[in-house]
Structure formats: structure tokens, C-alpha cells
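Issue 218. Parser rejects a valid record. Input:
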Amino acid sequence: MEPLLTRLNEKDYHILLNKSRHFEVNKGDIIYKEKNASDYLYFIHTGEVRIFKKMGPNKELTIFIRKENDAFGEIGVFSGPNYSNSAQAAKSSNISAIRKEELEKLIETNGKLGLQFTRWVADSLEISKAKIRDYMSFGSEGAVASVFVRYSNMNGIVTTEGVRLTEPVMIRDISMHIGISRETVSRVVSKWKEKGVITNENKFYVIKDLNYFRRLLACEYCGVENCVL
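Output the parser choked on:
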């Protein structure tokens, strides 16, 4: 999915940032919590932010991972008085925030800017719908496969061995993406290693048979192009 800020022309980009306040957050910092007043939309200039929802004691579900030049906080700013999820810095990040009232004024007077926001939100909804399809329709193995496919689209490099993921993959993170136990994820991954579908060195994986995942998820019947987390 194309990040929000790269969709904007130079003029609109600078208008937004001139109306925003800039600050830095450290890895692990909570930027806002579920039920906080949705007063700001945030932009990421460097770093990475995880959008998540509490599902119970010691259990979280990752909704989105947003990276450089993207935004977050729209599930709240455009939908109600409070955020319906939480945001945490997954990496130390440089971000900025624009007040809801300022953003609304800009969108009301700038049709092109409003159109880009509409398209960005629509793409986010498509991605959410595709993830729900994968997580709900194809069992635990399909849900884990869906995460690996999305990792491959986000940071995979095609090599003679297969698709090499350039960032480490943690069993814990997969579990939080799909809301199933680490033990279940670990069993699925072990099964794939035995079948030769994937290999890994420490936390860096190579997907040797990406078509195995695509067949499992019936990707040929899915029209979503932005298949990311």
C-alpha cells in the first residue's frame, strides 16, 4: 500500500507538515491508547509504528504496521471521538501530529487533498478485509501463511534459494498479528521446515516455495493488490 505522504503533491505535503507539531518517540513508547480522545492524526517521517488492540490480559492483536511516510490514527480521527485501538513505536521514530480540527479545515477547502485521504483510507479497508479473509477462512496454517506472504511483499528479496526476508521474523509477532497462540504458530512453522517450504537462520527466513502459501490461501481468487501488514 502506498504511504499517505508519498501520495501528496509537494504543496499539500508542506501544508500538512506546517500545521503539524514534530516530536520523537523511542522504541516501545505508547503514542496513544485505546479510548483516548482522537484529537490527532500522526505522520511517520522515520521509524515504524504498530497499531494494536488489547484482546485480554497479556494478549494483543496487531492491526497494522505503519512505516516511513505513512500515517496512523485515522481509525478515530475519521470515525468518532475516541481511538478504537492503541499505537506503539515498534522502532525509534520521528513523527508529527496534526490536530483533527486543522485537518478537517484543510480537507474541506482542498478537494485534491481530501481525495488522497479517501483513497488511502479505502486502501486500508481493502487490506483489512483481505487479512480477515485469510485469518478466518483458512485455519491456523492459512493465517500463518498469510503473514509470511505479507512479510515477503514488504521486505522480501528474490534469490536463487527463494524469497529471502531481510528483516527478522519473531514467532511472538506472528502470534500477535493473527491472534493465535505462539505454540500453534511454532507447530505450523516447524511443519513447513520439515516439508522444505521454508528455512531459517536464526530469525531470518527464506521462503523456498511461495506458491505453497498462495495455493493454501487461494490467492488466485483474491483481487487485493496491496497485500501487506
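Fixed in the parser; the record now loads. The chain has two domains: 4-128, 138-221.
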